[in-house]
Amino acid sequence: MGGMIHIVDDEEPIRDALSFLFASRGLAARCWPSGEAFLAALPLEDCSCIILDVRMGDLNGPEVYERLRAQGIQVPVIFLTGHADVPVAVQTLKAGAFDFLEKPFNDNQIVDLALRAIESFEASEAEEAARRDIAARLATLSPREEEVMRLMLSGALNKQIADTLDIAMRTVEVHRGRILSKMGARNGIELAMMMGTDGK
Fold first, then answer.
1. Which residue(s) pair with 40 in the sheet?
2. Which UniProt keywords are given for this protein, alphabetically ordered (predicted)?
């Protein structure tokens, strides 16, 4: 599992304890003493999970979170909260945060939560990469190939496609072969599954 956990907390003992804990479990972590310092370093290519304290100095956790979202950063955020801040943490969950932990927390609990957050992030990144790949492949299709593919995906047979587009059966077969080749699909079923994952 790649990526790094970024710990944003203005209390040095908590930063040190969490960094040591994650390192002991084979997880890379980097610490930040404030929300401002963390935001100033963005974008961070290695970031796959953020541990963010709710109550900090100039910028509190929810404010940092809002700025992350405003920049389009979708890395999962786990909030650390004191008992009095639970309602705030619940609000952040509604706004899309991954989860929150109330202090004092159990070591296994925060490690497990961070691992789930990283897994979730890596899965969403893989899905996004697949979507971009499909979009790039679609861009290589000619307008005629797009027409043929739409009819293929609707379940039309070669003869029906030929009749609909007023072209020869052999031409349909050539287009079908090119479409499958360009899209990286072995057959029509695989193509349909691919396009299904792309939400089309």
1. none
2. DNA-binding, Phosphoprotein, Transcription, Transcription regulation
